[in-house]
Design a protein that fits this description.
Porin; mainly beta; single chain; 6-stranded antiparallel β-sheet; 17 strands; 8-stranded antiparallel barrel
Length: about 240
């Protein structure tokens, strides 16, 4: 009987330590692995202007896609009730490689950019606060912008953007956007303060990259401005460890 009492006491301790882990007023900080998986496609490269004069012609059969990336994710969650929480999510911006498609596919990687995508999510947690495994659904807003955009393929720069004219250079800029976020996931309480979690998010995200090419001295240094409209639409997974305080 003594061992039964000991087992019962141990079980009580375990349940007590897991109780009230995600109650109203709780704060949780989390860190872990972001996997950003774009479902990308693009319109053909569009030449807007040559030497300042409107041109407005697409380059048929061309395109680009965004490759997957991994980075460190960070999140802060506050529980307003036992079931309702608001989460701020960010992390170290991943660098995405950009590959050519269509007639550009032979160039492989043609450019890269860093993606900044902080988001605010409203999340509804199912079950009681003392339940170890708690699935949730969430919805929110994301603001995305890009930095350090550049052409990384010299052959693409020289042959396509520079029209084969020596000394041509290009700069790239991208627009920013506000996007909805759909989110599902679950947390598992290891103790009353430590958690592991996994979530999956979807963002209907698109951007327009503007490429300003200054042709070499043989062409008088005129500017050719092109656009690439890219749908990114990433699925983002976040495997993390969290601490309640």
């Amino acid at each position: 009987m003594a061992y039964k009492k000991a087992l019962a006491a141990a079980a009580g301790i375990i349940l007590a330590t897991a109780a009230h882990a995600q109650v109203a007023g709780s704060n949780i900080v989390s860190a872990g692995w972001f996997r950003v998986m774009p479902n990308s496609s693009s319109d053909p490269l569009f030449i807007k202007s040559v030497g300042g004069a409107p041109f407005n012609q697409p380059v048929p059969g061309t395109g680009a896609k965004i490759k997957e990336a991994d980075t460190l994710g960070l999140a802060f969650t506050h529980f307003f009730t036992d079931n309702f929480a608001v989460e701020l999510v960010g992390g170290i911006p991943p660098r995405h490689k950009i590959e050519g498609t269509g007639s550009f596919s032979g160039y492989g990687e043609i450019g890269s950019a860093k993606q900044w995508s902080p988001a605010v999510l409203a999340k509804w947690y199912f079950f009681n606060a003392d339940t170890k495994l708690r699935p949730y659904v969430g919805v929110g807003l994301n603001y995305t912008w890009f930095s350090d955009e550049k052409i990384t393929n010299s052959a693409f720069q020289n042959q396509v953007l520079g029209r084969g004219i020596p000394g041509s250079t290009s700069t790239v800029s991208t627009d920013s956007s506000l996007n909805p976020v759909l989110n599902v996931g679950a947390t598992y309480a290891i103790t009353k303060d430590w958690f592991v979690g996994l979530s999956v998010s979807y963002l209907p995200l698109k951007t327009t990259a503007t490429i300003d090419t200054k042709l070499g001295p043989a062409a008088g240094g005129i500017h050719v401005v092109s656009e690439a409209k890219i749908k990114i639409n990433p699925v983002v997974t976040f495997l993390n460890v969290g601490y309640r305080f």
